[in-house]
Amino acid sequence: MQAFAYARPQTVEEAIALLEEHGDQAELLAGGTDLIIELRNAWKRPKVVIDLKRIEELRPAIREEDGKLVITATTVMADIVADERVRRHFPALVEAADVVGSVQIRNRATLAGNICNGSPAADTAPPLLVYAAEVVVAGPAGRRRVPIDEFIVGPGKVALGSAELVTAIELPLPVQPVAAAFTRLTRRRGTDLASITLCCGVDATGTARLAYGSVGPRALLIVDDSGVLADPGATDEEKAPILERMLAAASPSPTSMRAGPEYRLAMLPVLGARALRTAIKRLAETK
Amino acid sequence: MSDTLHIEVTINGRRRGLDVAVHHTLLDVLRDDIDLTGAKECCVVGECGACTVIVDGRPMNSCLMLAVEVDGAEVMTVEGLASDGNLSRLQTAFLDHGAAQCGFCIPGQLMSAHALLEGNANPSVEEVHEALAGNLCRCAGYPQITAAVLASAPGVER
């Protein structure tokens, strides 16, 4: 592998100073499941790799704070899947985190890295959109919170400015019953990148939130306030046109090797209806 | 010329101080610096699992981590399974069930299976499949591998 320098800052401030010093010659390392491949293939040629795992504040942790669940930047998928509070309040995130790669990958890959990598197929993006997560960003100007929908920009792009890094992802704990479900389409069961990722959430007020990815440059969030989608009594025929409108923003790539655009567009409403049914069932169980 | 860093790491129960190149992966260091060649280099993208080792109790792809990242950690490789020249119960089960064919993937399969059985004394078939989903076998010896793991589970009577 190409040579580079390795830095192991102890604080977020030290990491920011390193980013300021090295600019785009620096790469951040958390789980490394994307970065190490990029380094080996020389797709990225940094002068310095900044390992975030020795920063006390960023150590793997999931904690409850001010009505939110805070997931630090080095927390891996396996920890998210195993956490009782995440399982109780955010089952769709558990379902997504639990299908990222293999056991080996889930023991290394972080939630923050999954988002910062900017893949349109990132499994955790749709549930984070449905649960209205916020990304905590630290930089030379201090800390700020960015709604996940604004943080995700496009393929390989997120709303991180110069010398900024993600310290945590926060999930607001629901104040009223809300339920969501995640599903995805893959070529085979087991380790695979998704051809569609989709999450649907419904709440007690009748709002339905639908997020889907891998069918365009970024995962999208569409909200429906008609009440029809979330209504357990409404028929599939009544829901279909609403779902169709919500899914109309999909623009799958014609050149992807995983699935053709026709197939993805045909499967989207199938997955949408399936996730919606599961979400409605879960909402009924929480009441 | 490359930067090196001194790390302290416990490998198969033995504490070692190593000076490693900071851009070398854990797999590079295991195989080339300390002659533990059980873990194999294969896909180098985290899909095949041939490089699987156990770090602080969790199976990981050693091709996807820098050696400097395991500073202070406990690493177990396939060489750590046997004790006093005797194969472990899991290794013996692999032999008994003909689970090793060409053998290339077996160190990784054993590491994933060992980590599973450490936390789950009586796994179901589905749990074995999921735990080993990140370990590909080109000989397609999956039924034998699964049978060996199930037979060697601590919760199963000998």
What does the model show?
- The complex is a heterodimer of chains A (287) and B (158).
- Chain A has 287 residues and is α+β, with helices and mostly antiparallel strands.
- Chain A is built from 11 helices and 14 strands.
- Chain A has 3 domains: 50 residues, Uridine Diphospho-n-acetylenolpyruvylglucosamine Reductase, domain 2 (2-Layer Sandwich), CATH 3.30.43; 113 residues, Uridine Diphospho-n-acetylenolpyruvylglucosamine Reductase, domain 3 (2-Layer Sandwich); 109 residues, CO dehydrogenase flavoprotein, C-terminal domain (Enolase-like, domain 1, 2-Layer Sandwich).
- In chain A, 32% of the residues lie in helices and 25% in strands.
- In chain A, strands 4-5-10-6-7 form a 5-stranded antiparallel sheet.
- Chain A is globular, with a radius of gyration of 19 Å.
- Chain B is of the alpha+beta class and 158 residues long.
- Chain B has 2 domains: 76 residues, Roll (Ubiquitin-like (UB roll)); 64 residues, Orthogonal Bundle (DNA polymerase, domain 1), CATH 1.10.150.120.
- Helices cover 30% and strands 17% of the residues of chain B.
- Chain B has a 5-stranded mixed sheet with strand order 2-1-5-3-4, with helices on both faces.
- In chain B, strand 1 and strand 2 form a beta hairpin.
- The chains are: A alpha+beta (287), B alpha+beta (158).
- At the A-B interface, helix 2 and helix 6 of A face strand 4 of B.
Low-confidence stretches of chain B: none
Topology order of chain A in helix (H) and strand (E) letters: EHEHEEEHHHHHHEEHEEEEEEEHH
CATH domain topology of the largest domain in chain B: Ubiquitin-like (UB roll)
Low-confidence stretches of chain A: none
In terms of structural class, how would the helical and strand content of chain A be classed?
alpha+beta
- Radius of gyration over C-alpha positions of chain B, nearest whole angstrom: 16 Å
> How much strand of chain B?
15-25%
**Can you summarize the main beta sheet of chain A?**
5 strands, antiparallel
Euclidean distance between termini CA atoms of chain A: 55 Å
Helix content of chain B: 25-40%
Distance between the termini of chain B: 54 Å
Would you list the SSEs of chain B in sequence order as H and E?
EEHEEEHHHH
